[in-house]
Amino acid sequence: MIIKKSDFYYELPENLIAQHPVEPRNASRLMTVNKKTGEIQHKHFYDLINLLKSGDLLVLNDSRVLPARLYGEKENTGSFVEFLLLNQVGDKQWEIICRPGKKCKVGAKFKFGNGRLLAEVLEIKPDGNRIVQFTCDGNFYTALEDIGQMPLPPYITEKLQDKERYQTVYSRELGSAAAPTAGLHFTKEMLLELQNKGIQLAYVTLHVGLGTFRPVKEENILQHHMHTEHFMLPQETADLINQTQKNNGRVIAVGTTSCRTLESAVKYNSDSNQIQACEGDTDIFIYPGYKFNIIDGLITNFHLPESTLIMLVSAFMGYENTMHAYQIAVHEQYRFFSFGDAMLIC
User: Label partner for 22 (CA 20 to 30 A): which of 76, 78, 161, 201?
Assistant: First the structure.
């Protein structure tokens, strides 16, 4: 079986790549797609409250983005360096990407925020990433919040004025290298309105890795190796999912990260008829032909051509429906990618 990467290509004018978020958050546009018929309607995100029903369950990813981009200087020389934190491997030890790499030899020392954070390179990994040891006065994460910059995707070139606009309003578990962007459209007031209508909210955590931006290089997508991300599904969320399914309500994942968490949980609960609390690492790759086990609906943004994310969407609402919806989105001048508009598929 061969599924070609090029099958998921579409032409996207550069001016449709959103460079900044709209205000207020829920003023973004919302394309609704019936996954059975492919019927499309054009709404706004604040219309979601009228599109969902009492008894539906929204599952949101509460991961919070680390301000993981650090700009500093090499000790003794004062030459410029940039670090991008990827994942924590020990006490104040992190795997990082650094630029320029030639300055980041083992033993090299750097300072950030006028010396508030110090770092020493301990190891160079085969892929060129570094393991560094940080030291600081006080709490490391407090220092990072104060001096770090948001690791915006490479297609966003405008400077972000407010760090919180690259966080969901319900973010709380620090650990992502990129935002779970489907959730950026919700306001706190809107979440309260949804709950007042009888729509329940449940939370999972999946820490988004930079691998989410890694392009698929192989033409046969079955040869693509997915990055691994850590997830947690608490018992409270498991109970709400089981209760919703028992009552014939709809389980709607907010974002591909929530979707991947829920579908990964099935593997961790393979010997049970019900979802239970679980935690682990997932490299689940969802593409056309995948049989969904939990979700009945998906809220998601518009994704890059030939990405694993558009492949996931195609698996959920059908390849033809997906590529047609994207063609319509381009024609109707929807805004694309992280700060762009959204799609509701039910």
Answer: 201
